[in-house]
Amino acid sequence: MKYEELVKTLKDNYGAVDASSVNEHVALQFNVTGEAEGAFYVEIADGKVNIEPYEYYDRDVLVTVSETDLIDVFDGKLDFIEAFNDGRIKAEGNLIKALALKDLIEKNAGVKKSALKKAKSVVATAKAAKKAVATKKEAAKK
Fold this sequence. Notes:
With about 140 residues, the chain is an alpha+beta fold.
């Protein structure tokens, strides 16, 4: 994945997350290593998440992470705190503020699971309706 794709993917998946539960301004800069090398920031303010492909000089936390570990953290496959404790993520600054991002990631994972469950239900209903129509057509032929 290229840097631009990584930032776009994160913006698409997290830009609309409700951050109204975060009552303070939080700014994290991510320095990504690997194929998608580059810097971007995540700012949480006024109930919104803003992700931009720039450095954030007045940041609360500076995070250095590989592309694969970053994707795993944002996908909820790797816990931010565990990755930090294992040395897979390096972070400096106000680490308490980094917990706000962890909470939003977990919240987004729940939203994704709920949306996936709803989508599966819609697909199952559509399949059942299609099968019922096919059965009626077969009965009408007889």
